[in-house]
Amino acid sequence: MSKITVNGGNKIFGELAVQGAKNSVLPVLAGSILCKGNCVIHNCPRLSDVETSIKILTGLGASCLRDENTVIVDSTQISDYKIPEQLMREMRSSVVFLGAIIGRTGKAVISSPGGCELGPRPIDLHLSSLEKLGVNIREEHGFLYCDTPKGLKGAEIHLSFPSVGATENIILAAATAKGVTVIHNAAKEPEISDLADFLNSAGAKIYGSGSDTIYIHGVNSLGSTEHTIIPDRIVACTYMAAAAITNGEIILKGVMPSHMVAILSVFRESGCKISVSGKSLKLTARDRITRVPTIRSLVYPAFPTDAGPLVIAMLSCAKGTSVFVENIFENRFRYIDELNRLGTKIKTEGKIAIIEGVDKLSGAGCKCTDLRGGAALVLAGLRAKGKTVIGDIHHIERGYEDIVENLKLLNADIEYTED
Ligand code: EPZ
Predict the structure, then answer these.
(1) Which atom of ligand 1 is nearest to the CA of 371?
(2) What pLDDT sits at residue 373?
(3) Rounded to the nearest 10 degrees, what angle do helices 97-105 and 164-174 cross at?
(4) I need a surface site. Which of 50, 261, 338, 395 has the fewest CB within 10 A?
(5) CB of 329 closer than 6 A to ligand 1?
(6) Which residue has the least CA distance to atom 19 on ligand 1?
(7) How many angstroms separate the CA atoms of 246 and 211, rounded?
(8) Is the predicted pLDDT of residue 114 greater than 90, yes or no?
């Protein structure tokens, strides 16, 4: 079983092009099910979650070709409407395929996605919204049996919480429904707008994405299209934190700074020098960073929950004590016990993490508990004196394309090793 071994102490230095957004490519691949033709999707990161999505698509009857970072999906022939339990287990966010499969075939069978490392991941908002669009949902023996006896019809939906996944599922089911759907209190994340842009390029009529009210005028069907996935703002944050924690300097290419306003604000508050020009961003952290008194994760455009583990790792070596309040997921701090094995001094109390900055970290063996928590261990390893050996790295491979190769190019002493 391979691990990641880091010999810490090198300053991160250099230039990197940031990968396409995992949380955009997944719903876009789901949306390709609605398109009766070829979807050419550029800037698709090579990730295990993307491979799982491609397996789901081919299982439904689509054909998929990958050429480097371009994936071509031909959904002319969709012959199935089921997602195998194994694939649902591999990737719980496969639930975002539900709306698209129902939109294309009028029915769907998936196993209940269950929870994940971050705690319970309910989908009540997804299901209640789909029911408002005319979907009958029967839950039996851990499976969801969905059908639309009277077809999909537009509806007015108010989300009690601006759920990203539920917003995506409603858009995907409503794109070819009869009539107009309005989503109130919709999620405003950039990935929602990227999905809407993709679907509109294939003939959909979706307005207001990025705001809290989205209008979807159902059309008969969608056709072929070509689309480029937006950059991954959380991966960009990860490499920024790598430069900050090692007092280095990094230039990121192909980023969308307008997607990262809350993230940039926290880095600047910690003393990092950041300059932005078009789709490039330069971060310099010559001196030891300083604490950020309080950071709160909230829905977009506030500070994103997924960036929490990355800035917590970075602030573990700051001057002073920082506080992070996690408002989105119940169980987001599981990685912190592993981080403390490297000498960080972080205490958690419910949804609050108190990060007492230390000057030195020391390498240790540790294990990833989830995707972003795993990335936090890599960041701490870059700083820690001596060797850090990180296990269960399949979590990291879900969301980071070539992280070891990229960090090597950025002057890190890092490699894959076997047990
Ligand atoms: C998406 O998850 C992302 N995943 C998450 O990234 C991200 O952390 C999250 O949005 C918040 O930004 C993908 O896009 C694939 P939510 P999602 O629905 O859609 C509650 C990663 O690995 N909720 O906005 O599941 C839920 O319990 C992941 O990249 C309900 O109560 O997020 C949570 O507390 C980690 N009922 C909150 O809403 C529902 O029906 C946020 O969930 C749905 C959600």
Answers:
(1) 22
(2) 98
(3) 10
(4) 261
(5) yes
(6) 165
(7) 37
(8) no
CB 370 within 8 A of CB 396: no
Same domain, 136 and 203: yes
**Domain identity same for 123 and 179:** yes
- What is the number of the ligand 1 atom nearest to the C-alpha of 300? 12
Protein residue whose Cα sits closest to atom 42 of ligand 1: 163
Distance CA 272, CA 172 (A): 40
* DSSP-derived 3-state class of residue 270: coil
Contact between 109 and 82 (Cβ < 8 Å): yes
Distance 383 CA to ligand 1 centre (A): 31
Catalytic site positions: 116
**Distance (Å, whole) CA 106 – CA 85:** 20
pLDDT in tens, 14-57: 999 999 999 999 999 999 999 999 999 999 999 999 999 999 99
* Structural domain for 88, as ranges: 22-228
* The residue to which tokens 């990355």 are assigned: 310
28 Cα to the center of ligand 1, angstroms: 16
> CATH code at 289?
3.65.10.10
Ligand 1 atom, smallest distance to 93 CA: 15
d(CA 222, CA 207) in angstroms, rounded, equals 16
Number of domains in the chain: 2
